[in-house]
Amino acid sequence: MQLAHAPARARRERALSPFARTLLALCVLTAPVIAGVLPEDRFDALWHDYNGGDITVQGPSVLVRKKATDNLSLTAGYYEDMISSASIDVKLSASPYHEKRQQENVGFDFLHGKSTYSAGYIHSKEPDYTANTAFYSVTQDMFGDLTTLTLGYRRGWDRVFEDRKDPQTGRIVTDTIIYNGRPATADHRGYTLSLSQILTRNSILSFNYELLTDQGYLANPYRKIRYLSPGGGGLFTLADQVYPNTRTSNAFSVQLKYYLPWHAAVTGQYRFFRDTWGIVANNIELDYTQPWHRWVFDGSIRAYEQTHADFYSDLFPRADFQNFEARDRELAAFHSYTLGVGASYQFGIGSVSWLQKNTINVRADHLIVNYSDFRNALLAGEFGAGDEPLYKLNANIFQVFVSIWF
Amino acid sequence: MSMTSKLMRTLAATTLLAALAGCATPGPWVKPYEREHFADPIMSFARNPVSSTYLDHVLESREGARGATGAVGGGCGCN
Question: Do B64 and A19 touch (CB under 8 A)?
Answer without folding.
Answer: no
